[in-house]
Specification:
Layout lengths: L16 E3 L9 E4 L5 E4 H23 L3
Antiparallel strand pairs: 1-2, 2-3
The chain binds zinc ion (ZN).
Zinc ion (ZN) binds next to loops.
């Protein structure tokens, strides 16, 4: 697993994101690289990504043990 953020803009579908400031600290505001929509802080995105991965794992587990 990498630390790379996999997150898609809900408006334009772009996977490019830009940070308002550097260095990349968790409180930095992140914007969509496609439509410039404000996404949230880096911390928000990390949490959302972790939550999405947890759901994916949960579904996988449910599939494995469903039979
Ligand atoms: Zn966008």
């Amino acid at each position: 697993m990498t630390n790379e953020l996999k997150f898609k803009c809900s408006d334009c579908g772009s996977e490019d994101f830009v940070h308002a400031n550097s260095p990349n600290i968790d409180k930095n505001m992140v914007f969509c690289g496609g439509c410039k929509k404000q996404i949230g802080t880096l911390e928000d995105i990390k949490k959302a990504t972790a939550a999405a991965q947890a759901i994916k794992l949960h579904k996988l587990r449910a599939q494995i043990f469903s039979n």
